[in-house]
């Protein structure tokens, strides 16, 4: 784990884990994984994003805002057990 943080999106707390950088296809990437618990704390939900380390600061800001938009708009469904 390279970095951990927590943020509130649409009133729900999300835990963010950022993985160390790795190379793939000649480019450098890291993963950003967003976790949250259901209101009953019985189910864990996550969204994972693969982020290029070679993008500009403006594109990175757009990507993070896009992730937050998706999380904000998402309906979290439980996977059948």
Q: What do the pLDDT scores average to?
A: 84
The best one-word shape is: globular
Q: What is the alpha-carbon Rg in Å?
A: 14 Å
Strand content: over 45%
Which stretches are low in confidence, meaning pLDDT under 50 for 5 or more residues running?
A: none
Write the layout of secondary structure elements.
Layout: E1 3-9, E2 12-18, E3 22-24, E4 27-37, E5 44-52, H1 57-73
Antiparallel strand pairs: 1-2, 2-4, 3-4, 4-5
Short key terms for the protein model shown above:
81 residues, alpha+beta, five-stranded antiparallel beta sheet, 21% helix, globular
Model description:
Helix content is 21%, strand content 46%. The protein has one helix at 57-73, and strands at 3-9, 12-18, 22-24, 27-37, 44-52. It has 81 residues and is of the alpha+beta class. The mean pLDDT is 84. The radius of gyration is 14 Å and the shape is globular. It is built from one helix and five strands, in the order βββββα.
Quick summary of this structure?
The chain is an alpha+beta fold and 81 residues long. Helix content is 21%, strand content 46%. It contains one helix and five strands; from the N terminus they run βββββα.
